[in-house]
Amino acid sequence: MPKQGQSVETCIITRWFKAPGDRVDEGDILFSYETDKAAFEMEAPAAGILLETFFDDGAEVPVLVNVAVIGTPGEEIKSFYPGNEISPGKKSQDQEEKREPKSSQDTSEKLITPPSSDNRIRISPRAKRLAEEKGINYKDLRGSGPNRRIIISDIESVLAGRTPSEGKDPEEGMEYKEQPLSNVRKLIARSMHTSLQSAAQLTHHMSADVRRLLDARRKIKEELASGTGKPDITLNDMICWCVVRALGKFPEVNSHFMGETIRIFNRVHLGFAVDTTRGLMVPVVKNADEMEPEQLSEELKSAADACRKGNINPELIKSSAASFTISNLGNYGVEMFTPVINLPQVAILGICTIINRPADLGNNTFGFVPYIGLSLTYDHRAVDGRPATLFLREIKEQIERFSLTV
């Protein structure tokens, strides 16, 4: 199990994508797993046959403990069982076969009963613990997990008076289904609730004329199509750059509220919300104020890709890593919303969809102008209404005079 970050001691396996006996190639996704901060995917480090997996879906596994073995059929795997790991060359095969299991005090052995034979009772540690607590005889149960392992939902089914699923649709005839929260979902729920409970949050709304941004985007697309273009800078990239420039003029918004003090940052560490299949993640681009639009665009794309692939550095998705955050729901057609602050940050900007509105074009000529909605939520404990409004207006002005040549 990989170690993700200095403070991470255990990870939870959320899903196996391969089963024992499957052929795997180097780079294939073996399983997904979660820490208390993010979700990741584990790639096969080598090609071969997945000989055994030592933990079920939902198992909490200490970092650096073996979770599976890849090799060739017939190879000895006993020495790789959790609690039996040895360094290559330290023990002969005869010594390995005579090796006694570690005591039950070993952390990794508490989490798993090592396999002993093909007819062993396969049960996850959490399922076994719950069964023993409730006095359920699980030895005759037919599990619904991988390789017919008994998982915690099977024990819960018995407690509810149902028989664990054996090829039937477990939702058939049920009025509703209950789905356990992933670690990422729990983290989002906890942080959002804490944010709304702890901060005095207000939201101001304003719109900005985006004709210059749309013109710049159109030119970029034309140059890309002709093969002579610059990097593919998106509207979101341009707006992020405008926000960074505005933060340079209003450093009090580029800060953390620490209770008795306000920590004002000299550099802009820009966080931005990324929607992934595992849930919302907010990576940060460090020192964004030192970047031109092209470099900022590349860094934003790189961080977003890392989140979606599950290999983002956990230190870069802490709320304390960013000094200010942007959340863009414009692509979904949202016209106005109230983003929630990532504490201890003091503000967050929501970017809304573009709407054509009637406007004075000059010389008594009226027409429709594309406007983008901007929603700034700020912590009134740290920022008053006037500077918050002036900051939002500065973002608007940065957008309306945007130029890639600046």
Write up this protein.
- With 406 residues, this protein is α+β, with helices and mostly antiparallel strands.
- The chain folds into 2 domains: 10-182, RNA polymerase II/Efflux pump adaptor protein, barrel-sandwich hybrid domain (OB fold (Dihydrolipoamide Acetyltransferase, E2P), Beta Barrel); 184-400, Chloramphenicol Acetyltransferase (2-Layer Sandwich), CATH 3.30.559.
- It contains 9 helices and 17 strands.
- The protein has helices at 93-98, 107-110, 125-134, 152-159, 183-198, 211-226, 235-249, 293-309, 385-400; strands at residues 10-16, 23-24, 29-34, 39-43, 48-53, 60-62, 68-71, 201-209, 255-257, 262-264, 270-272, 274-276, 279-281, 284-285, 324-328, 347-362, 365-379.
- A 6-stranded mixed sheet has the order 8-17-16-15-11-14. Strands 4-3-1-6 form a 4-stranded antiparallel sheet, with no helix packed on it. The chain has a 3-stranded antiparallel sheet with strand order 2-5-7, with no helix packed on it.
- A hairpin with a 2-residue loop joins β12 (274-276) and β13 (279-281).
- α7 (235-249) packs across α8 (293-309) and α7 crosses α9.
- The longest helix has 17 residues, at 293-309.
- The protein is elongated and about 85 Å long.
